[in-house]
């Protein structure tokens, strides 16, 4: 069985270039993992958190409690941006070890990256369910090719937002045109990241790796204004970009290459999707 864990990064507010904390991108990332890798990956992630961020677990008496300790990707970005040279090296070391774990356990990535237009309303209410459908399509393709069943687990938001997303998958699963997700063992399930190490991994992939890579690739001129476009994030893009690229799950259908990391720009803007991965 395969597992797919999904988390979002950025926000659905408008991009206001004059605002220091404006979010230029919104993205949704999925990590695909074999069920047999869940235990070793979970143990390794907990051990990494204990090793790199021991202060986060101050007062904990049991190893298991470390699962609930979250090291948010946004905090890693803040340390890269505002921390001392030692703090920056510490974060890069953590990310290096994390990426090495993903490579060793053959984790694959599918991501939808939405580039916002300056001062234009961003319709997050329609973008999110559409992105989930695309991620589910990629997951279904992998399940089909490997003749496996899978479970689709999303970071829970709230009932009002969760129900339509799951129902959208339901309508495809039981649709009249045979386009269903026949290899999903169940409709999308929703979990809390405090209880799922792989949802924490999805957060790191989106927030610590993909988000700064995307902003530096497509909004370099905001570096002097927007904290999320700080030039320090070139380090993430140039050091890890090509390795993230190698982890993509891509597939072909009707002559079109799908899956992997898709970069979508609004309006008439045209962008190169491979630019996000930085230098070769």
In which range does the helix fraction lie? Answer: 40-55%
E-strand count:
8
CATH H-level homologous superfamily name: Ribonuclease H-like superfamily/Ribonuclease H
Return the CATH class. Answer: Alpha Beta
Could you please describe the fold and organization of this structure?
This protein is an alpha/beta fold and 280 residues long. It has a single domain, classed as Nucleotidyltransferase, domain 5. The chain contains seven helices and eight strands, in the order E-E-H-H-H-E-H-E-H-E-H-H-E-E-E. The chain has helices spanning 38-52, 73-82, 85-104, 124-146, 159-173, 197-218, 234-246; strands at 2-10, 25-34, 108-115, 150-155, 189-191, 250-253, 256-259, 261-265. Strands 5-4-1-2-3-8 form a six-stranded mixed β-sheet, with helices on both faces. The protein has a two-stranded antiparallel sheet with strand order 6-7. A hairpin with a 2-residue loop joins strand 6 (250-253) and strand 7. Helix 2 packs antiparallel against helix 3 (85-104), helix 4 crosses helix 5 (159-173) and helix 6 (197-218) crosses helix 7. The longest helix is centred in the middle third of the chain and has 23 residues, at 124-146. It is globular. The chain starts with a strand and ends in a 15-residue tail after the last strand.
């Amino acid at each position: 069985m395969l597992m797919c864990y999904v988390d979002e990064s950025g926000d659905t507010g408008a991009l206001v270039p004059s605002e220091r904390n404006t979010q230029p991108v919104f993205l949704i990332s999925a990590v695909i993992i074999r069920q047999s890798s869940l235990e070793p990956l979970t143990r390794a992630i907990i051990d990494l958190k204990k090793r790199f961020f021991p202060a986060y677990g101050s007062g904990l008496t049991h190893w298991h409690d470390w699962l609930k300790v979250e090291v948010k990707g946004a905090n890693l970005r803040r340390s890269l941006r505002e921390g001392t040279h030692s703090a920056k090296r510490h974060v890069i070391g953590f990310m290096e070890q994390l990426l090495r774990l993903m490579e060793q356990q053959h984790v694959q990535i599918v991501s939808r990256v939405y580039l916002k237009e300056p001062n234009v309303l961003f319709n997050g209410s329609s973008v999110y369910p559409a992105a989930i459908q695309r991620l589910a399509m990629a997951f279904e393709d992998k399940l089909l090719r490997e003749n496996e069943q899978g479970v689709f687990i999303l970071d829970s938001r709230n009932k009002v937002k969760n129900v339509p997303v799951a129902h959208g998958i339901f309508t495809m699963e039981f649709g009249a045109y045979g386009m269903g997700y026949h290899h999903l063992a169940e409709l999308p399930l929703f979990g809390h990241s405090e209880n799922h190490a792989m949802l924490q991994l999805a957060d790191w992939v989106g927030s610590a790796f993909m988000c700064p890579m995307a902003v530096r690739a497509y909004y370099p001129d905001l570096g002097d204004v927007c904290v999320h476009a700080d030039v320090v994030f070139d380090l993430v893009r140039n050091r890890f970009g090509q390795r993230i690229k190698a982890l993509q799950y891509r597939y072909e259908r009707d002559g079109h290459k799908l899956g992997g990391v898709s970069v979508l720009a609004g309006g008439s803007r045209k962008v190169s999707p491979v630019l996000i991965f930085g230098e070769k």
